[in-house]
Amino acid sequence: MLDRSILREDPEKVRWALDVKGVDVDFDETLAIDEEWRELKAKGDELRHERNEVSSEIGELKQTGKEEEAQEAIERSGELKTELQEIEERADELEERFERALLELPQIPHESVPVGEDEADNEERYREGFDDLRDLPEEVVPHYDIGEELDLLDFERGAKVTGGGYQFVKGDGARLEHALIQFMLSVHREQGYTDVFPPIPVNSASMRGTGQLPKFAEDAYRVGARQDDEYDDDDLWLLPTAEVPVTNMYRDEILLDEDLPLKHQAYSPNFRREAGEHGTETRGYVRVHQFNKVELVNFVRPEESYDRLEGLLSEAEEVLKRLELPYRVLDMCTGDMGFTQAKKYDIEVWAPGDDMAEGPEEGGRWLEVSSVSNFEDFQARRAGIQFRPEHHKSAQYLHTLNGSGVAVPRVMVAILEYYQNDDGSITVPEALRPYMDGQELIEGHRPVGESALGAGEGE
């Protein structure tokens, strides 16, 4: 949420943010609501002052025996009370409308963010890991094919049990995914993160606090949704990212200066409707409705947030460096950055098995595995998270940051493709072997059931 003083003192800055982020709202109406509210507040103050004066006069008039004048003052006091009540009711209505309108206004991009319309205008900062690529098979098999061949991924049975966009991860595939999660958590503990295991359902106040509501309600799964469109606080949603519960841990609280910076990490399953519904990529383990992720959430002093953003980026990158996976870092442009972020970096891992998107000179494609973002005080204002710089000073809003450390399925995709061998096996990255009892190769399993038999073998 933006500080309302920005709307009053620099509305053109907000108009610019709406334009470069492609957000369509009636900002003139928002300004008109605020202007009328301020006029009513001023009028209310005048009426209260007049009513106080009349009340004082009533007593004085009665003491001096001026009963007729006292009665007129009493009647005027009643008129002022009625008028003031009408003004306060209208002001409360406008305040509620203004608060709802504020929730629709996006974060203002930082001055360093590239201005652009879409992903084509993102700027590549650098690449890592391409100077020493491992030897790959002449033709790398896409993850969805080799995953099924080795009986690591079962999309058909996942769709049968739940629906499209869900899957079973089996055998060594499941062990690999568990290993990745434990490995990531271990890496970030070294970096000073405290583990948090959050609730999976979150309430509407939490979704509003981090910016998922009202903007992205259609992308989230609502638990026990009601028939109306109200987002009551006792409604529950399956979390789209652990950013939501971990950030809202401190909702409506005041932290101390010595508490900061706070660095929390949380593993969670995540649920999103939008994944796999765009028609561009519905096959495989890239765009799915349920996926695992380790999330990094930081709470910092405002003057430290941009240094912390660079540190957070480095902490997320460390996972890919230790896995020896090639990747690149993008500086996201205004039109591809998102509603809540002031500045955002994307980390994209290289998956060599499929040319569904533009990849490096070696072919393959880029897969986003982490978005590292600074929200400044945008989320803190929505969630009411403050800190007190000194015990005798007023509380102020802190800054929040978050990044994926990292999204597990897409790293799985990259491993299944980048670590393929000529014989169809998968080499387990060295960094993961301690989490897989020293296992070095994934060679697959015998599929179960008649459907796995070759032609004529079931007769």
From TrEMBL:
Keyword Lipid metabolism listed: no
Taxonomic superkingdom: Archaea
Chain segments annotated as coiled-coil in the UniProt record: none
Record flagged with keyword Mitochondrion: no
Residue positions binding ATP: R272, R273, E274, V288, H289, Q290, F291, E368, V369, S370, S371
Catalytic reactions on record: tRNA(Sec) + L-serine + ATP = L-seryl-tRNA(Sec) + AMP + diphosphate + H(+); tRNA(Ser) + L-serine + ATP = L-seryl-tRNA(Ser) + AMP + diphosphate + H(+)
Domain Aminoacyl-transfer RNA synthetases class-II family profile: 142-429
Pathway: Aminoacyl-tRNA biosynthesis; selenocysteinyl-tRNA(Sec) biosynthesis; L-seryl-tRNA(Sec) from L-serine and tRNA(Sec): step 1/1
Family: Belongs to the class-II aminoacyl-tRNA synthetase family. Type-1 seryl-tRNA synthetase subfamily.
Entry note about domains: Consists of two distinct domains, a catalytic core and a N-terminal extension that is involved in tRNA binding.
Subunit structure: Homodimer. The tRNA molecule binds across the dimer.
Record-linked HAMAP family: Ser_tRNA_synth_type1
Record protein name field: Serine--tRNA ligase
Organism for this UniProt entry: Halalkalicoccus paucihalophilus
Lineage: Archaea, Methanobacteriati, Methanobacteriota, Stenosarchaea group, Halobacteria
